[in-house]
Each structure stands twice: as structure tokens, then as C-alpha cells.
Amino acid sequence: MTRTSLLSALFVAGLAVGTNAAAADASGQMIAAQCNGCHGFEGKSVGDVSSLHGRSAALMSKAMMDFKSDTRQATIMNRIAKGYSDAEIKNLADYYASLK
User: Fold this and answer.
1) Measured in whole angstroms, how far is the alpha carbon of residue 70 from the centre of its chain?
2) Are 49 and 81 in contact (CB under 8 A)?
3) Other beta carbons within 10 Å of 99
4) What is d(CA 64, CA 76) in angstroms, rounded to the nearest whole number?
5) What average pLDDT does the structure give for the chain?
6) DSSP codes, the chain
7) What are the tens digits of pLDDT across the range 40-84?
């Protein structure tokens, strides 16, 4: 492998690591956009699904971690929560708690 090829491979690998790190650090607002379908814009539900707007970060994090570990059962939230890292769940909880 030539020096140029090696540097190119390291550059591409660095981009891949950077992309994964950015995904792990997705903002709560970005993640919350995926919740709008059921929980309403900014977590303000207009139906039977619970509102998340302004909910305490501690309660929100606990609920999501319980869904993720199957300690708390739900129809779909267990599968959804498993798709997020602990850091993303914290970001999401902090975002909803910040809405007043």
C-alpha cells in the first residue's frame, strides 16, 4: 500500500468515525421530530397518547430506559427506545424538559 493510499484510507475511516459520533450525539430536538407523529408537535398531544411537553427530564429518561430494558411494557415504545443510545435518550429528555 502506498503512502497516499494509506492516508486516503485513514481519512475515509476518520470520516466514518466522525459520522457515527455525530449520530450518537443527535440533539434532543432532532430526535423529538420523530416523536411528533404520536406525541404531537413539541410533545403537545391532542389525542390519547401522553404529552411530553415540559415533562421532567428525570421522569422522561426513566420511562425511556424502562422501555428500552423491557421493564415497562408498551405496544411500540419498547422497540423505539431500543433504537436510541443512553446519550440520545438523555438529550431527548432534556429537550422536552426545556419546553415550557
Assistant:
1) 17
2) no
3) 15
4) 12
5) 84
6) --HHHHHHHHHHHHHHHHHHHHHHT--HHHHHTTTHHHH-GGG--SSSSPP-TT--HHHHHHHHHHHHTTSS--SSHHHHHTTS-HHHHHHHHHHHHH--
7) 999 999 999 999 999 999 999 999 999 999 999 999 999 999 999
